[in-house]
Write a structure and sequence with these properties.
Number of helices: 5
Largest sheet: 3 strands, mixed
Oligomer: single chain
Strand order of the largest sheet: 2-1-3
Mean pLDDT: 90
Order of helices and strands: HHHEHHEE
Radius of gyration: 18 Å
Structural class: mainly alpha
Distance between the termini: 50 Å
Low-confidence stretches: none
Strand content: 5-15%
């Protein structure tokens, strides 16, 4: 069990934890994960052990890594379908723009799946905020 003697009711609310929480959790490289501890306090968890903070960081990394793989795979599938493996893809969404390694993970995934693909992933300016991807032809 994790976070014993703490009510996790708020954590069961859909969308309670946003992409900023995930990004900030993964960014913490301190030996005691002090930034993660602060984030937890802000969400109502006053006391946490280092082991719990490390587990939470591992969970956030796993979830965001999976998301980057799924996003990259979908974008590569569209680019392949339309025959544009050498193009720029403008992407909107806070995970892409603010996460410390989301873009790099997407690029690694694209290269892993198709080393001949040359997709230039860039942040979309003035996007809708819905996580949209556009392929510039």
């Amino acid at each position: 069990a994790i976070f014993l003697n703490t009510s996790l009711d708020k954590w069961r609310t859909p969308y309670f934890l946003d992409s900023a929480f995930v990004s900030k959790t993964e960014e913490d490289k301190s030996s005691d994960l002090s930034a993660v501890s602060k984030l937890l306090t802000e969400t109502g968890i006053e006391h946490s052990t280092l082991q719990e903070r490390q587990l939470l960081q591992d969970i956030c990394e796993t979830v965001s890594h999976r998301a980057s793989i799924l996003a990259a795979t979908a974008i590569l599938a569209v680019a392949t379908k339309i025959g544009k493996l050498n193009c720029t893809v403008a992407i909107d969404g806070s995970l892409f723009s603010k996460h410390p390694v989301f873009k790099a993970r997407m690029e690694d995934t694209i290269t892993f799946i198709n080393e001949n693909a040359n997709l230039n992933l860039v942040e979309a300016a003035d996007g809708s905020g819905l996580g949209l991807s556009l392929i510039h032809i």
